[in-house]
């Protein structure tokens, strides 16, 4: 702290922040500070794939947010996990590698007027940091007859025999490892076959711009371990003398100065956990907010950048009246249909006894495979909720298990869960501070199922699930609908039941959206610089995280956030 001045200060060592720290510190002449309010990623459950069960809801790794009561959820609130650790949400998420659809990025280009957001220009940024699996690192796993500890487990053979990607679509040798999952389940194979019988084509690659189809998800793992952005991007850069990383450093507010050229962000006021010390740090070039769709708008509002009425309410001087800060919140709401099955194994049975749990632990210790290597969802499908849609508008996350709610015990009967989400919700929510204290969580109101279109998609998607489960391929498992219940048939009944059983899939975006200058809700320019609310920019301030997305991508949002950070880093260094 002899010289608390840096060239770049990055707030948040999550998905975007770790990549930015790596890229910006490549220039040895630039001093880079990366601050993280959470802890180091040295908790063992961060690295074991099934450890998300022990990280979500754990104050060591999760901010423990809750949503506001939602009318669309019949007054319910939801747990809203956000990573509180190096790697951010990439340390506690579902590890699914998903880019979305080409049309998502073409729409961004149209919304922002920036051609760089077109799919053809985003694909190279996805490939830039990708390390896509090859045959030699994803050979077939031994089948259960060859393993002394797999006799009571499903046959654990990897699906497919070789890498199906090509240089046109995938990159090799980058930091972001993408591999096949290291297990399969008979009942999930049957669901995939049933989906094909229902008209959904099989696919071996969800990431070529059109993700329609059914197949096993690819995951951000390496040899059976979670691969988070702290491992991928931060650790290789830690030996650079120009990169400083602080954990337990809470950003209290931005330091803003007004000069002849307008408003400029010159640094941050921080509170350090150790010793309760207050520290001021300054940035010669830029402060970059990568605190996520919840943290970044919260910090902007606390600093006097946001809707004037909200800031006045909490006695915060208005430096930039930007009504879009905290607005435009979008998320994927998954409707969790549960089906009892017969004649097949699910995790409900395997994890119900100490013997079964022991076998699962041995399977992972022996081969880094089996249920402990599982992503939360193994099988995926993208299709249309009705013929009215020109593109796949719903996504399935199918799991060989069931429970009443996340964090609750598994059911005592064998079952699978077919969760389905609306990829392009029209409902919009908000993130708003509740006080001027940085320690107080903001009010998170996703406003799920608030529009007629979203309610219709919810009802129709439950019917698609029923159509898949009724196909001949599932017949040998005798599926019986447990939730929401086959007796419910009307749109009104299905929408109401969707509100009872749905939960977030943890994809909040849009709360600091980028857009054109004439968009009243556009917080950022197309190159992610913060506007000043008066037709200009706040110099030296940028937001690079999922909050910048004007519309949510058609799939899981972690890898699109990395792509955005790759692009932003290039812009920041003048590329």
From TrEMBL:
Annotated binding of FAD, by residue: 85
Q: InterPro entries recorded for this chain? A: FAD/NAD-bd_sf, GMC_OxRdtase, GMC_OxRdtase_N, GMC_OxRtase_C
Return the Pfam families for the record.
Answer: GMC_oxred_C, GMC_oxred_N
Q: Flavoprotein: present as a keyword of the record? A: yes
GO MF annotation list: flavin adenine dinucleotide binding; oxidoreductase activity, acting on CH-OH group of donors
Keywords of the record = FAD, Flavoprotein
Tell me where in this chain the Glucose-methanol-choline oxidoreductase N-terminal domain is found.
Answer: 292-306
The record's comment on protein family reads:
Belongs to the GMC oxidoreductase family.
Q: What name does UniProt use for this protein? A: GMC family oxidoreductase N-terminal domain-containing protein
The organism is: Ottowia testudinis
